[in-house]
Amino acid sequence: MGETFVMRPDIRRAAETDAAQVAELIATAFAQLKVVSYLVRDRRERHKILTANFRIFVDHALEHGEIHLVDDGHAAAVWFPHTAPLPAPRDYDRRLAECTGEWVEHFRVLDALFEEHHPAEPHHYLAFLAVHPDRQNQGLGSALLRHHHRRLEGAAAYVEASSTGSRDLYARHGYEVRDPFALPDGTLFWPMWRPGNGRAPGGP
Question: What is this structure's pTM?
Answer without folding.
Answer: 0.91
